[in-house]
Amino acid sequence: MSTKQDDHSPWPEGYDRVVLDSVDSTMAEAMRRAPDIQRPTWIMAKTQTAARGRRGRKWVVPEGNLNATLIFRPEATPAEAAKRSFLAANALYQALAIYISADKLSLKWPNDVLLSGGKVAGILLESSGQGPFVDWLSIGIGVNLRHTPEGVEDASFAPISLANAGGEDVSPKDFLSTVADAYATQEAKLLRLGFDRIRDDWMSNAARLGEVITARTGREDVTGIFDSIDRDGNLVLITGTGPRAIPAADVFF
What we know:
Low-confidence stretches: 1-7
CATH superfamily of the largest domain: Bira Bifunctional Protein, Domain 2
Helix content: 10-25%
Order of helices and strands: EHEEHHEEEEHHEEEEE
Largest sheet: 7 strands, mixed
Radius of gyration: 17 Å
Number of helices: 5
CATH topology of the largest domain: BirA Bifunctional Protein, domain 2
Shape: globular
């Protein structure tokens, strides 16, 4: 494994950063700090004691991996805010591609990054608000940089780390700078070019596009050819009865 020294990547303008030694979860900490946050803020913790992923699943976070949450007010409806998962996925892909060959990376709908077929990063979105626009959006990311988590029993895709896949070594703090800068670029793209450009970028790196996959919704398993992501971010499968747009599911292949 080659080693990349801390490069102290430049921090994106307009974003704040908080680095903690330990916290229950950066998502929980973000919401506690929300009333006092003045502009988009990344919160990073060296260790977490109660991290979680989608649907309450446990997220194992050895020290040396990245645990971080971006909290901000996106001036978006809940549906528009949810599309930020694609911005985060694009940013993670671009950041990871600096430290390992991009041809080993792919994006799995709705919110995972795969490395050599294993899960190297995950994304979790939470929002709050009662009106037409969300008050706050939190984007949590976990990235296996230096360690592959052990004891993960319910993973559909086995975890893998950047280091164990032969990637360059990078500290969590420096990787956060890299992904924060990439995310800021994604927000600028969304503002100037709209979600279609974000979607096209995501699909250009999508895992199993054009192949048969299965989406498990909780009520049924839908199997079909992975055709696209629509303008609402839904997974579109071509099934025996025609196209199906699926808003939420776990994907298997």
